[in-house]
Amino acid sequence: MRWTRWLNCILVRRLPPQELVNLTVEVWPQMWKRIPREQRVDFLINVAEKHHGTFLEDLSREERTSLMNSLLPLIVREFPLANLDFLTAYPSPGEGYQTEASD
Fold this sequence. Notes:
Elements: H1 2-14, H2 17-34, H3 40-56, H4 61-78, H5 86-89
């Protein structure tokens, strides 16, 4: 694993952020094929739960709001909202929600 960390460090230092994203997207299909279909949802949930903080770390509450407002149209297009169970996902108002004081 040392060589992968070393290679990652070199790529991060030399490539602009958008090129790093493009490289990731280019490699994604090969990686995705290695994950059995029945494990893909769990894989994505695990990635989101473990790493979302890394992506949002330096964003203010206002920036997070702007990001979410921009992402919602994409989410609505890609997910079957009519089939979602919001009451199960959010059983109690206030539970799991970040308050303004948490900023």
